[in-house]
Automatic annotation (TrEMBL):
This is Uncharacterized protein. It comes from the Archaea.
Length: 383
């Protein structure tokens, strides 16, 4: 299925650039990746991951906060370690002015996966962006951050403009960002976005459960606008795209040791061709690289990985495990992993396909987790 209107929709088709233009209107002119969708089913026991080393604890905190006003003040302090105690539930409703700004080298922490489920930040109303920072050295760890809509819907079928439904938890345009041991759900635009067209950034996203971010036209777990990113030991499910990358020259990511659950809205890992997103670009350029390995893809109705053009550096999908995808069999089983509008610098090798492949992949991840100081958990989702 292409990037046009979803099957069965009676709404007027909206082009990719129209979606991006609406997004730019709510993000100060910074574009976000865009493409369209279809939904799917399969049941499986979630497999998530935690690590105990390197975790932030309450004793490390410079600020302990339990109110929204205290949180806002603490986040404005450069170098602060801000602790939200387990059981805290902060509601950021319409009365709260957003986005909340985060100063340089701030850590926001709770104890998800350590001594409890962690503090929760709930945003029941649509806010274009909840937390925003142009600074570097920020870490978000051990929190649950839940947005306004966990169900799939198409904003073009609604009476209000599509942009009025866009909600994003975090926007980072600085470098050296770490997101770990968080649960991020309910974000119609993206749970987290990184970088701008002019600003390549770097991030490390690990040991999270990122799910139910599935609105049509956007619906990203991670929106990688620019820069180089490492994505590992995460559980993804019920996302339109678990990871979407924009396609700039310095835009690339490595995804390893992840599990993508069975409830696909569209293909899980994505790298756009830059010309899909920017009018003044032509040609096949699709980022710097896309490298995926040792990842389980349980989706059964859509592709696992789609590279939409030609990357600048060698890219690959290797040593991963994919369920069979009956809807794509006519294109050959490796159409589960696709390169479109490009015919080079992309290797697909040593992957395992079929109904039993993902069980083998889960066993491999459980066996090798300890080598990476990681533990497996059977139920990473609580929302």
């Amino acid at each position: 299925m292409g990037d046009g209107e979803p099957a069965g929709s009676s709404t007027v088709s909206q082009t990719r650039r129209e979606v991006l233009a609406l997004t730019a209107g709510i993000t100060g002119g910074v574009f976000s990746s865009g493409c369209l969708s279809i939904a799917g089913v399969k049941q499986s026991e979630p497999l998530g991951f935690i690590a105990r080393g390197g975790r932030v604890r309450r004793a490390d905190a410079t600020h302990v906060v339990e109110t929204v006003s205290d949180l806002r003040g603490a986040l404005s302090t450069p170098g602060a370690t801000v602790w939200l105690p387990n059981g805290t539930d902060l509601r950021l409703d319409d009365s709260v002015s957003m986005p909340l700004s985060i100063a340089a080298n701030v850590t926001i922490a709770s104890d998800r996966g350590l001594d409890g489920p962690g503090a929760q930040i709930t945003v029941p109303a649509t806010a274009p962006t909840v937390f925003r920072s142009p600074e570097s050295g920020i870490r978000v760890t051990g929190l649950r951050v839940v947005g306004p809509e966990t169900e799939y819907f198409d904003p073009r079928s609604k009476s209000r403009p599509a942009s009025s439904y866009y909600a994003r938890a975090f926007e980072f345009t600085g470098d050296d960002i770490e997101i770990d041991h968080c649960e991020l759900a309910g974000w119609t635009h993206a749970a987290v976005s990184f970088g701008t067209g002019e600003t390549p950034t770097g991030s490390h996203v690990h040991h999270n459960a990122i799910h139910h971010n599935q609105m049509d036209t956007l619906g990203y777990g991670l929106d990688l606008r620019n820069g180089i990113h490492l994505i590992e030991w995460n559980y993804f499910d019920y996302n339109r795209h678990a990871v979407a990358a924009f396609g700039h020259r310095e835009n690339g990511y490595e995804a390893r040791f992840n599990v993508v659950g069975p409830h696909a809205v569209r293909h899980a890992f994505d790298m756009h061709r830059l010309s899909q997103n920017l009018d003044d670009h032509t040609g096949p350029l699709a980022g710097k690289y896309l490298r995926v390995h040792h990842t389980v893809f349980e989706t059964t109705n859509s592709a696992a990985v789609v590279l939409r053009g030609e990357p600048r550096a060698n890219s690959w999908v290797r040593d991963s495990w994919c369920e069979a995808v009956p809807l794509l069999e006519r294109h050959g089983r490796e159409s589960i992993i696709q390169q479109s509008r490009g015919n080079g610098r992309f290797q697909v090798e040593n992957n395992d396909f079929g109904p039993r492949a993902t069980d083998r992949g889960r066993k491999w991840l459980r066996k090798h987790a300890a080598e990476h100081e990681t533990e497996t958990v059977s139920d990473p989702l609580s929302v």
